[in-house]
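Take a careful look at the protein record below. Let me know whether the structure tokens fit the sequence:
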Amino acid sequence: MLSVKIRSGKAYPLGATYDGKGVNFALFSAHAEKVELCLFDRSGTEEQLRVAITENDHNIWHAYVQGLEPGQVYGYRVYGPYDPLNGKRFNPNKLLLDPYARKVTGKLIWHKAIFGYDLDSPDKDLSFSELDSAPYVPKSIVTANDFNWDDDEHPSCPFSESVIYELHPKGFTLLHPRVEDMSRGKFSGLASKSILNYLKWLGVTAVELLPSQAFFRDKVGRDNVNYWGYETLAFFAPEPSYLTNGKIDEFKSMVKTLHKHGLEVIMDVVYNHTGEGNQLGPTLCYRGIDNESYYTLDKDNRRFYYDSTGCGASFNVQNPYVLTLVMDSLRYWVEEMHVDGFRLDLAPSLSRVGTNFTQNSGFLLAARQDEVLRKIKMIAEPWDIGMGGYQIGAYPPGWAEWNDKFRDVVRRFWRGDEHQIGEMASRISGSSDVFGYNNRNLWSSINFITAHDGFNLHDLVSYDHKHNEANGESNCDGSNANWSWNSGLEGMTEDTKVNENRLMRARAMMATLMLSFGTPMMFAGDEFANTQFGNNNPYCQDNIITWIVWEAITMQDRHFARYVRSLIKLRHRLNVFKNEHFFDGLPVNKKGFKDLAWYTENGTEFSGGDWNISDRRSLAYLTYVPGRLFFVIFNADSKEIAWKLPLLKRTKKWKTILDSSGKFNLRIKPEAGKIIKVPAWSVLAMEITV
């Protein structure tokens, strides 16, 4: 039995706070009638003490337990009406996580006791379960914030100089032969010397981690689990399976080490829903603490939920206490875990008043005025599945957004589709038609061709159709709008011509990404042609479909990686990509050079009629920075094109600095006004001093 003294404590801060003598516990619930704090032994298997929390100030239940120390395992039982038809789902038989838990322990065991209702009842969620869930659910742990950060500093790389690298914390390191066994698939693996050396060699400036907050690794099939992690359970705790021996300082050490090498850490965070799902989901935390506060209920039938996420129930950030939780969580990861930014999954779900998206939502207003969040990278996935959910370009100044318009047109252009030239030019030049409002900058557009969701680059050029059979959903899951082309044969082949075409287009797409204006983001493994075997929705594949198989990288793959490295290096070298302002196509110096101009193969600027030629599959841009002109040709035609170089004042010979095809003689210095042969499926880049 624990020897402790209990006092009323304080309502803030929320969560479990150790002060050197004991722990203050504070929990929000607006509709609870009674709250109990359950204290367990270190293993989390034996309940040692149950404390009735009687103090409630402004919906915050709180108690101070003197004598407790960091490492204490605990959970809550919350009492109140069980009335699902009116949105109330209290069930004290269910042990609940602390929403502010900094650390969680124990695995979720799929057992009918974790549900608030009787799974065997024909009434389903209208029934009431009397089974105790404590043996089957994760539990919260009290922590102390005593990590030594030394002189750690945020790299603070501007968006205009950033190259973001999206990766999975487990899959990226699990099979790496030079990562120590105990660190494979862990946060510590990302901080290993071999991984750091590779990231620095490649030239990226930031790693964007797929969800790393503790998530619900629920079974989604007989053999499949929630691999991606988009089912968050605890918004303050690192995912336990990525920790070695459960030490959360491992995450901090990873960040500190990456910072030391100049790399930023961006977290993909999921605040739009939780792992509890809809009314048929388990009761693990928020549903049992205060269902009608934490989730948005269906206004016509409070048994059910409003869902703009496709995952069961929208998290109710319109409730001020829930909004406080989200903001506290974001600040925690910046202030105590030192991360450099966030990518917010399905961000419109957080940005609604009622069911409508608005820049005046509580979340966006809170983020805009927050002195901590104003200093770091905030990236929105600007769509959800709710009414009016597609909101690309609608986020306020200071936000960047994933640009799926860039993704789609680049894919379509490089598979040879017609009618793509005008759209392609808009996306390459930074998408001013989308983001050029309210004094937003060029870097507002996060340009990407591939990401965790959808085909990766190898599969984009190798498959016409998705192949998701392994997911167990009869290949019905995942998008059908992939804009992919297999070059003539589906999947793996030894056909030389097919493979050559695939390589040409993959090289051209990577060049397009790195030579476009905006902030480039690439998906880990694309630089060495990693495959997911045609699966465009491998959210449940915790296996070699998604893991990076480092030892399977061929010599050709290594050549491709060196090529991608050279592209990133070129982008960093060229001052033109450090520009933060959209182009207006007007002369910027006395010589009459424009900030950006578009050219045809005839050596002349595009006119209105040129943009309307439906089967045109090539274009070029010319941009000026003080002392230099930079010229890039994109040829998605299946044959080479005779291209007349622009004849400009005081220009003589161009220097070719990139040929994505490898078929153009880089030693040749073409003269201005002369005709060159631009290889099929290629990107050529040239520069000249003026």
In short: The two ends are 82 Å apart (CA to CA). The chain has twelve helices and 31 strands.
